[in-house]
Amino acid sequence: MSTPRVPLYQRLPEIYRIRDAEQRPPGQLRAYLAAVEDAFSALHENIEALYDDFFIDSCAPWVIPYLADLLGSSHLAGEVRTLRADVADTIALRRRKGTLGAIERLAADLSGWPCRAVELFPNLAWSQHLNHQRPDAGGLPPYGEAMLPAADRFTPRRGGCVPIRDPAALSLLATPFDPYAYTPDCKRADDGARHINLPNLAIWLWRLAPYRVPALRPLLKGAVALGAAPPGSDAAAFALRLDLDPLDRPLRLFNTYRRPPLDASGATQTLTAADAVPGPLPPARLNSGAADGRPQDYIGIDTFDATQAPPRGLDLGDNGLQFYLPVDPNDALDPIAGIDWRFRGDNLCAWESGLRRPLAAHEIVVDPTLGRVLIGLASAAESGALSEPDGVGGLRARLYCGYTYAAPGAVGAHPQSRAAAPTQFGDSGAGEPTLLRTVGGDSGNTLQAAFDNLDTAALPVVIEIGDSFEHPLDLAAVAGVHLADGAPALALNRSLIVRAASGQRPLIRLMQPLRLRPLDAGAGSVAGLTVRLEGLYLSRGAGFPAGAALIARAAVARLECLSCTLDAQGHSQRDGSRAPTLPSINLADGYGFADAGEADAFAPTPDVLLSHSLSGPLGIDPGYRVTLAASIVDAGRGPDEDASGDFAYSAASAPASGWGAALAIDGVTVFGRVRARAGLGSGGVFCHRLELWDNQHGCLRFCRFSGDGDRLPAHHACVSGAGARLAFTAIRVNEPGYAQLAAGSDWRIRTRGPGDDEMGAYGFLLNAHRTTNLGIRLREFMPVGVRPLLLYVT
After folding, report:
1. In this structure, are residues 307 and 328 in contact, taking their beta carbons and an 8 Å threshold?
2. What is the pLDDT of residues 719-741, one digit of tens each?
3. What's the CA dihedral at 613, 617, 623, 629 to 10 degrees?
4. Bridge-partner residues for 254, per DSSP?
5. How many CB atoms are closer than 10 A to CB 258?
6. Does the structure show a pLDDT above 80 at 313?
7. Which among 326, 413, 460, 615 could bridge 537 via Cys, Cβ 3.0 to 4.6 Å?
8. Which of 283, 285, 245 is nearest to 372 (CA)?
9. Residues 679-724: pLDDT tens digits?
């Protein structure tokens, strides 16, 4: 029971509480005052909230329009955080109305996306009069270039020639930071493209959210001896080949976003810088020594104490890519200490065949498109300092790296902020304490050991993983595992939570499918037995059975996957092909009990919840209840591809002819066919055929259907077929814009979903509201004669 704000019963004299306990039944006075305490507490909370409601930062959401009225600001709808920022900055923005800094701040407040405002008229080319030449404003002179200062030699000039000697400067072409001159573009300016003309103001927005993996061990592909360098040459003698993704998949690297600083009055001092936006790393600007190379804005180098295990002091910097190199502080001759590293962006798709430019010693070559790194070293000692035996006859890296990638939003496992580990499990005020087991980080504990003896736990267990490293899990080697049902299964005495710590994304390598069962199928506690997975990336390890699902048994009352990625592959490979898709969950009727008595004693109907999660095909028989909320289910087929035999959701026993468990949805994107006994909910985007056995009950609202032989229940405000075109920025899981609705999608899919926002898994982001709110405010803030153009970079 929760503690009342005003404990009236506890303030009574002791004699009254003693007499109350002696009554039959006891506690009558306590129960009576409990009802009074609830009303009294609500009254106190309301009075305390009156002061908070004076301030936009702390007021209740319903107060925001009233504070806006006091400032004469029109009302908007959408995400509460953006509405607060809009009202909070109203006065500051009005004072600076018409300035680029105000436009950038306005766009950032209303959308939450990084922004760059650019006046396009300076990009118009112009010709100089021969009698009144302006060498300070014209192009580079054709002769005497060496007479120019070094800082001006590569500076673009209006109306002049583009310098082609620096790829880093040329990489700004067609970007928000393009300084070059163009002829006027007089076409219609409402097609989402940049049109350079006098009245146009471009507002560039980066919609993809950057996620920073703090530190992990990269995948060492080889330590190669290149041979002794010729005398006087700086060529490398050894090279380390690294793939940053531990799953050995292509990885598109992004930079972090650094918001421009504010002055004392709250005004923006500078506009968004070219090398401080959350876009893909431009290879040309990673080059050390280039006139316009800025590797320090993208790559950082740090060291850690190599004598400590696990490593400590891996401090995350502001760079999109960061390397942590091991240094022994007790060794004055440590070969890594004091090296002045150089950087280069290059194509490493065929690094076995050599590079276009030879690898230099102490040079780090980065391929931001594939997520590959090549490190040039001068000696065998340096190579040995950065690699070590892996215990199975190979080598592994001793260095660590942190990198940044991008996604449309928080669907799947991402390194994001999370609340602290729960100290109580169950209903608020009525739960019981939890037993916390920490893994990784400074604890030094392994995930394998944390799963031991769950069958004897007297309290709900919380396992928190404090790093983003790779953690193997072999159920067959867990103490207390149940083996009588034909395959190892975790025998749970109490509920279990396995979660990532705040800002981390651990990778769990399963040696066999995850199977869950109660210690005693007939115990009364089974009705509340819950397993919750939060923020985890589940993948297959060595020896995982071919074709098996990641989760193959859930004989519990409730299985929750919150912000998880159940790796189904289906990613783009380095040759451009797509990897085959594998199942994520396969739950058959019978719940996996080999003993008929246990099967009869198991009473609950398990609930399976996927929330803000990314999954492969789901095979779940009708003995379960399934809820999908803000999630993606991918069977490996895009909206324009044939998926006649690819089932994203169906029965585990017979996908093609059976019917999966009844399905409830609340914002979901499904790539592949769906066959379920029944369905209800809203906000679904079904790229392929949806068939419901019971089409007489339930209702689907604000959904998009394929129109290809769907079997539907009653539906409201839905769109279907070719008349509602569906397009995505990307349809492969390791691509940055995966499952993001493209601008070419039907406007009803983008704006007529639940709450008048977009349909699908990312509807909770309220992207349509952000764009609409920004358009409203821009019409209010634009100077006369200026036309804003909203342009999306990502």
Report:
1. yes
2. 998 889 999 999 999 999 999 99
3. 30
4. 280
5. 16
6. no
7. 413
8. 245
9. 999 999 999 999 999 999 999 999 999 999 899 999 999 999 888 9
- Contact residues for 655 (Cβ-Cβ < 8 A; gap 6+): 619, 647, 675
pLDDT of 499 > 60? The answer is yes
Q: At 298, is the secondary structure helix, strand, or coil? A: coil
Q: List the one residue out of 302, 306, 308 whose CA is nearest residue 339.
A: 302
Sheet holding 673-676, edge to edge: 490-492, 514-518, 551-554, 585-587, 618-620, 647-650, 673-676, 690-692
Give this prediction's pTM.
0.90
**Phi first, then psi: what are they for 168, rounded to 5°?**
-65, -40
Q: Which residue has the higher pLDDT, 367 or 318?
A: 367
**Both tokens assigned to 442:** 């400074």
d(CA 253, CA 281): 6
- A 10 A CB-CB count for 585 gives 29
d(CA 125, CA 111): 33
Listed in order, strand segments (DSSP E) in 95-137 are 115-119
373 backbone dihedrals φ, ψ, rounded to 5°: -135, 140
Q: Could you give the CA distance from residue 82 to residue 99 in angstroms, rounded to a whole number?
A: 21
157's torsion region: left (phi>0), alpha (psi -120 to 50) or beta? beta
Residue 564 tokens read as 């998880």
* Mean pLDDT, residues 311-333 taken together: 83
Give the SS3 label for residue 581: strand
pLDDT of residue 248: 92
pLDDT at res. 699: 94
Residue type, 435: L
135: amino acid identity, one letter: P
- pLDDT-based confidence at residue 264 (cuts at 50, 70, 90): low
Peptide bond before 472: cis, by omega within 30 degrees of 0?
no
Cα 630 from chain centroid (whole Å): 13
Cα 306 to Cα 244, 386, 471, 699, 740: the distances in Å are 20, 10, 20, 60, 42
Q: How far apart are CA 607 and CA 557, in angstroms?
A: 6
Is residue 147 very low, low, confident or very high in pLDDT (cuts 50, 70, 90)? very low
Amino acid of residue 24: R
- One-letter-per-residue 3-state SS of 647-715: EEEECCCCCCCCCECEEEEEEEEEECEEEECCEEEEEEEECCCEEECCCCCCEEECCEECCCCCECCEE
Q: Quick check: 512 and 482 in contact, CB under 8 A? A: no
Is the pLDDT reported for residue 139 higher than 50?
A: no
For 1-42, how does the pLDDT look when each residue is reduced to its tens digit (9 = 90+)?
456 666 777 777 888 778 888 788 888 887 887 777 778 778
Kindly give the pairing relationship between strand 238-243 and strand 219-225: antiparallel
DSSP 8-state symbol, 785 = T
* Alpha carbon separation from 400 to 306, 340, 375, 385 (Å, rounded): 11, 18, 13, 13
For residues 469 and 186, give the distance between their C-alpha atoms in angstroms, rounded to a whole number: 53
Q: Which helix (H) or strand (E) holds 674?
A: strand 673-676
DSSP 419: P
Please state, in angstroms and rounded to a whole number, the distance separating the CA atoms of residues 646 and 418.
35
Give the whole-angstrom CA distance, residue 132 versus residue 504. 62
The per-residue pLDDT for range 411-432, each reduced to its tens digit, is 999 999 999 998 888 765 556 7
What three-state secondary structure class fits 620?
strand
Residue 146 burial by CB count (10 A; 0-12/13-18/19+): exposed, middle or buried?
exposed
